[in-house]
Amino acid sequence: MVSSHPREDDKYHRERQGPTERSEKHSHKRRKTEEYAEQLPYNARHLTKHDLTKYRALFGLYLDTQKQLSIDKLDEHEIKGRWKSFTGKWNRGELSEGYYDPAMKVRADARASDRQGSRVIEDTAPSRAECEEAKDEDDEDDYGPARPKGGDRGAAQPTRQDLQYRDELKAEARESEREALRHERKVERKQQRERLDDIVPRAEPGTRERQLEKKREMSEANRSFRDGREAGAEEVGDGDLMGEDGVEGLKARIREQERKKSERELRKEEVLQARAAEREERLTAHRAKEDKTMEMLKEIAKQRFG
Fold it and tell me: Which PANTHER family does the annotation name (predicted)?
């Protein structure tokens, strides 16, 4: 006789089931519910096997950081197996809280995009053979009149290193000129002494005749000095005051000093301009970095708060 009440039928079936079968059924149900945490950090959702494409960048970051593996070097079978293990840890909340942060996923996606762009550039870059072939073609084009170059925007602003290198070259040139002049004067004095010795040969050093010559030279020098003091002050000509060239030479020296002063002021102005350009470049880079940071923060806030 079949009972007309469903509850009595369920009770009948439960009574017919053994305790072992009921305990296995309950434990299986309990294990299935324990696989998922009730609430994940940052209110993240649970992942499935179909989320691999969307979370591939974050999964690759996890493999690189935790397993020291590159996702690009793994085959699809191993990737799927490791993704299954990753989703299990994710859904149970066993990963570090940073992986659940939406900002971490944004950074991982940006990093993956940059790496993808780098690989595209490397793939599209010309090979060495192509570069050599292009170089040969350029060498062939060198024959004949040169083609006009367009698009020149003028000389670039020199940097402080360029100005310092230029000043060093000028200093080396001046030092070389002075060294050459000293060498010429030394050679000239030596030649004068040789000619004087040919005209009036000196006595041998250390002899009595040489001592007498030195004594006479000293007496003549003292006598000329004494006569000069007794004669009083002599008139000094313009040549002695202003140099051998006179007034024109003095004017030329004044113009030379003014020119050097102008060059120093010009170099100082160039250094200041170079410093200002470097400072402006640093400020521009800093502003670009701040703008990029603000854009990333806005994107994170938009994803988190909508």
Answer: STYLE CELL-CYCLE INHIBITOR 1
Count of CA atoms in the C-beta half-sphere (13 A) of 189: 5
Contact yes or no for 44/100 (Cβ under 8 A): yes
Tokens of 41: 């950090």
Q: Provide the token pair at 175.
A: 């030092």
Q: Which residues of 62-101 are buried (b: 16+ CB within 10 A; e: fewer)?
A: bbeeeeebebeeeeeeebeebbeebbeebbebebeeebbb
Contact 55, 91 (CB under 8 A): no
Q: Rounded CA gap, 209 and 201, in Å?
A: 12
From the CB of residue 124, how many other CB atoms can be counted at a distance below 10 Å? 7
Contacts of 67 (CB under 8 A, 6+ apart): 82
pTM above 0.85, yes or no: no
Ramachandran area for residue 239 (φ above 0: left; ψ -120 to 50: alpha; else beta): alpha
Contact 98, 62 (CB under 8 A): no
Q: Say how far apart CA 79 and CA 86 lie, in whole Å.
A: 10
Amino acid letter, residue 98: G
Express as a percent the part of the chain with pLDDT over 90.
Answer: 15
Look at 26-40, 69-83, 126-140 and tell me which has the smallest mean pLDDT: 126-140
Q: What's the CA angle centered on 108, arms 106 and 114, to 5 degrees?
A: 105
**Hey, how many other C-beta atoms are within 10 angstroms of the C-beta on 158?**
16
Question: Which of 56, 90, 43 minimizes the C-alpha distance to 303?
Answer: 43
Neighbouring CB atoms inside 10 A of 202's CB total 11
- How many other CB atoms are there within 10 angstroms of residue 273's CB atom? 14
Distance separating alpha carbons of residues 136 and 129, to the nearest angstrom: 11
